[in-house]
Amino acid sequence: MLVRKLRIERGWSQETLAEISDLSVRTIQRVERGGNASLETLCALASVFEVGITSIAKETSMYKENDLSVDERKAVEYVRDMKGFYSHLVLYLICVAAMAVANFYLQPNNLWFIWPTLGWGMGVVSHGLAATELLSFYNVDWERRQIEKWLGRERHQENK
Q1: Cβ(120)–Cβ(92) under 8 Å?
Q2: Cα separation of 58 and 154, whole Å?
Q3: Can you give the residue ranges of every domain in the chain?
Q4: What sign does the dihedral 104-105-109-111 (CA atoms) show?
């Protein structure tokens, strides 16, 4: 059983689960991400969800391939890609702002910050296009072909 899945099925927030199980929100977050959980934590969660400790202990991550349908796997992958893009975008904006401030403060007559802004900006745009799948040369089909190609070589070498 997946902790996150069980929590969502019941319509609980992480805060609600933390309150009910007498655990911290941070502990709930760590367990849902697949982090290590103490026996006490596992017991508390198993008790709240009315399942065995072994089912909680075995599967504390929502990203286990066996537990998700094809649509759920695609959704998880899409969300991961978008999260990566948003993190990249926020980092870009913070760094560009810092460079601009430094540039205007130290060398107001030389706008050097524009060049890294343009270069890095192109990377952010391409990351966004790939994450939203508006422009993706390396899509799921490409990945599948590469994996099959690699496994085929591996099997071929084993047969020799």
Answers
A1: yes
A2: 30
A3: 3-58, 69-159
A4: negative
- Indicate the burial class of 137 (C-beta count within 10 angstroms; 0-12, 13-18, 19 or more): exposed
Please list the pLDDT of the chain residue by residue as tens digits (160 residues). 478 888 888 899 889 999 999 999 899 888 888 777 888 888 999 899 888 888 777 755 444 555 567 777 778 788 888 999 999 999 999 999 999 999 999 999 999 999 999 999 999 999 898 888 776 666 667 777 888 888 876 544 444 4
Query: Residue 35: left (phi > 0), alpha (psi -120 to 50), or beta?
Result: beta
In CATH, what class is 3-58?
A: mainly alpha
Q: Please tell me whether the overall predicted TM-score, pTM, comes out greater than 0.85 for this model.
A: no
